[in-house]
Amino acid sequence: MIMATLCGLALTVFPRQILAKQTEGTLNDTEDALTRLLGVTLISSGIAWYRTKDSRDGTVPITLMISRVFTSSAFLMAQLFAYFIQNKSGNNKATKSSLAWSDQMIVMSIFPTFLWLLGNLFHLFRSHDFSTYPQHNIRLNNHLRVDGWFMFLIGVAYMAFPIQIVGTISNSSNKVSLHVARCIGALYIGEGIVSLQAPGFLHERDKKALFLTRIVSELSQACVLTALYFFQDFVKLSGAAYMGIVAFPLLINALIGYFGGGTTIYYVSSPRKNDSKGE
């Protein structure tokens, strides 16, 4: 939690400085915007860890740790792909940029991510309670499932179609912006995994911590994009609208799940039994 929060804070406050030390070429505002989005999403993901740190349900930290293992693994694969494959491909016609990763990426990104993955695996293997509780058909659990599938599909879109995603935000894209978009997708899929497993959590407060995370994350991303649109004037209106269309259902679902009554049980109708005597 602490490492992810500190990394997210650094990416949000100093995106240009961090990327400049790992790249060769001229950066533009697109990389800054995507890096800030990644940063605020990392910071927001720490809310669930903080709100559930005293949970008596042993499945909660294990689920969060499994999500972190996947996220750090996807980060590492994206970084290795960007450094060893994208750099060798030369100028990509789709990106139209000569911006490339430097050897400093190994020191500042690949190696720390590898250590992050090892730390997550170490704590996960020390855990013993991998069981789960029944996922009852209640309103709160249904909102968690909706959140999980939304996050999973959006994350897949970021990882599979980074050129199209970046193209909706800005007119310029390059290897760096595509890599950051893939990292955002990896983080989204990791968050989706937690939401899909959360209906098995024992306590309602642990489930609602995920909705609070989503509320803060979506509002933070909206603030970043709004500020960039009005003050830096490079984010396309269509990109801001697209992000709004994607974020709005997530935000509404999270608000309903957090503030609504979550214990309403949806009963499945069944044939009535004839209990009358003599029949």
List keywords for this structure.
279 residues, mainly alpha, 10 helices, 2 strands, globular, disordered C terminus
By oligomeric state, this entry counts as single chain
If helices are DSSP runs of H or I spanning 4 or more residues, what is the number of helices? 10
Output the helix-strand order. HHEHHEHHHHHH
Percent range for β-strand residues: under 5%
| Mean pLDDT metric | 83
Q: Which stretches are low in confidence, meaning pLDDT under 50 for 5 or more residues running?
A: 274-279
Radius of gyration: 21 Å
Biggest sheet, strands in spatial order? 1-2
| Helix and strand composition category | mainly alpha
**How far is the N terminus from the C terminus?**
64 Å
Shape: globular
Percent helix range: over 70%
What's the main sheet like? 2 strands, antiparallel
Number of strands: 2
Secondary-structure blueprint:
Layout (H helix, E strand, L loop, with lengths): L1 H12 L1 H6 L2 E2 L4 H23 L7 H28 L13 E2 L2 H22 L13 H22 L1 H8 L5 H23 L6 H29 L4 H23 L20
Antiparallel strand pairs: 1-2
Helix pairs in contact: 1-3, 3-8, 3-9, 4-5, 4-8, 6-8, 6-9, 6-10, 7-8, 9-10
Q: Could you characterize the architecture of this molecule?
A:
It is a single chain. With 279 residues, this protein is mostly helical. It is built from 10 helices and 2 strands, in the order ααβααβαααααα. It has helices at residues 2-13, 15-20, 29-51, 59-86, 104-125, 139-160, 162-169, 175-197, 204-232, 237-259; strands at 23-24, 100-101. A two-stranded antiparallel ribbon has the order 1-2. The longest helix has 29 residues, at 204-232. The relative contact order is 0.16.
